Amino acid sequence: MSSATASHLVAVVMAGGSGTRFWPVSRKARPKQLLPLIDGATLLGATMERIAPLCPPERSLVVTAERLAEATRAAVPQLPAANVLAEPTPRNTAPCLALAAIAALQLDPDAVVCLLPADHHVADGAAFRAALQTAADAVQHGGIATLGVVPTHPETGYGYIEVGDERGDGTSSVVRFVEKPDLARAASFLAGGRHLWNAGIFVGRADTLLAAVDAELPALGETLAPLRDGRAGAFASASFVSALAQAFPSCPSISIDHGIMEHRDDLVVVPLSAGWSDVGSWRNVRDLGVDADGNYVDGDTFTLDCQDSVVVSDGPFVAAIGLRGIGVVARGDAVLVLPLDRSQDVRAVVSALAERGRDDLL
Q: Are 52 and 99 in contact (CB under 8 A)?
């Protein structure tokens, strides 16, 4: 990357998710990104360390929910406290992108934003940063880049990106986004070699991203206009926070993909091979840091003759015998037991608890 491009990079980490698929360890006050799931580090902390060689703390922003702001600041003490932006209400990822781009422009009028989820795992940080560098170089004069993970198996839990022609700068054109496929279609994607997993990572100049917001979601651009024209002041100021509290709840609730990227003809993709996982469920956790028997074990636990299982305790001692592909996750007030191939169904438990008014377990 040219030194000119590198000097304008601003990392923006989206850390407002609830992580319901990691119940009972993940709760409203301590969601997935704040859990020490990998090697004792929180996923948010690992994300910040991964990006630090490209973007030091003073050039990094974290966007989170207002109720999580203090816990988030505690999880990344290296980050200036003012660089944690608090959303007054959840409005999905497109408003998060717009807010982040507005703040990035205050840091640097030529800012190139690297927009990253807080809760992914990447085994090869150097390869990840190299892909971001390629993306940033490709968009320094316009356009938007995304990272597409080279698939290693026919995964049905991820969206895909169909790849077009190579451009000669390490990127390729994007033909289209594809929703999560069934197994047969996922297998055809893997065999065809023209599809990448959608990692939800985007790179673009801050002004380019805001122009895309205005073009594709004009109502969003208009709603946040008071934050962009200077009237609200610096993003860390009380006046900005007050203006944000007034405007943000009126933003349309829509994702970056559906609201913006699926409609762009200036989007390119950089392939990523770096041991990536979105750590989306307990099944994904099993694939990270497993022991010789394919188990992920953490906390005060004991296993005997277990294979390909997850045994985690954030509270009582747990002993597991003879498990095959089973998850046992314990906290002081709740225990989850499930076949790991049913990990996506944990959200149904959380929904049922909410319907029953069991806020004490949420």
A: no
